[in-house]
Design a protein that fits this description.
Homeodomain-like_sf, 10 helices, DNA-binding, about 200 residues, Arc Repressor Mutant, subunit A, TetR/AcrR family transcriptional regulator, Tetracycline Repressor, domain 2, Rv0078-like_C, mainly alpha, HTH-type_TetR-like_transc_reg
Length: about 200
């Protein structure tokens, strides 16, 4: 029995994204070719063009997938914390530290910005700002965070964490840079905490 069309489309997309992710994560965007994606997935170039337009479109799809996985991991981290403030700090720090992971480092923080431009302009960034804003509003309502403009704080924290991750990913000493970035970032966040 033949699979429904929607299922076949979803399978083709998933195969191409997996092949793209493998190639981008191992040889990088510049080093990967259309044949890497289609040959690895057992599909034609036509399928790639149909679903993603081109190599850049495939990279965007891979980044969306990795970003969604990062979000799930970050929610798990913040949920495990003993209180909302600690969860907020742990989640922000974990995002920065993910820049040490080879696949995330290469795809999200090296090739992504090189190919797609400023990370703060990516479509997924709006979701990050919204999530941070929600957390900030809760922390302010709890009396744990200073009375600061929510969107302004969300954008500043997002910018600081993104730039810290980019700094780590492009550093000659990612481990050392990560320690410095996390230490500085924790101090910045503590400056937003109310003293009761």
């Amino acid at each position: 029995m033949r699979k429904p069309r929607e299922e076949m489309i979803a399978e083709t997309r998933a195969k191409l994204i997996a092949a793209g992710r493998h190639a981008f994560g191992t040889v990088g965007y510049a080093g990967s070719s259309m044949d890497d994606f289609t040959g690895h997935a057992g599909l034609t170039r036509g399928a790639l063009y149909h679903h993603f337009g081109d190599k850049k479109g495939l990279l965007q799809a891979v980044i969306r997938e990795i970003d969604a996985e990062m979000t799930v991991r970050l929610h798990r981290i913040s949920s495990a914390a003993p209180n909302r403030w600690q969860g907020f700090v742990d989640e922000c720090v974990a995002y920065i530290e993910m820049a040490l992971e080879p696949e995330i480092q290469r795809i999200m923080f090296r090739d992504g910005p090189a190919v797609l431009g400023d990370i703060s302009q990516w479509p997924t960034n709006n979701g990050c700002i919204a999530a941070l804003s929600g957390s900030i509003d809760q922390l302010k309502a709890d009396g744990v965070m200073a009375d600061i403009d929510t969107e302004g704080a969300a954008r500043l924290i997002n910018g600081a964490s993104s730039h810290a991750a980019l700094w780590i990913a492009n550093s000659d000493d990612p481990e050392g840079t990560s320690k410095r970035a996390v230490r500085g970032f924790r101090i910045l966040l503590e400056g937003l905490r109310t003293r009761s």
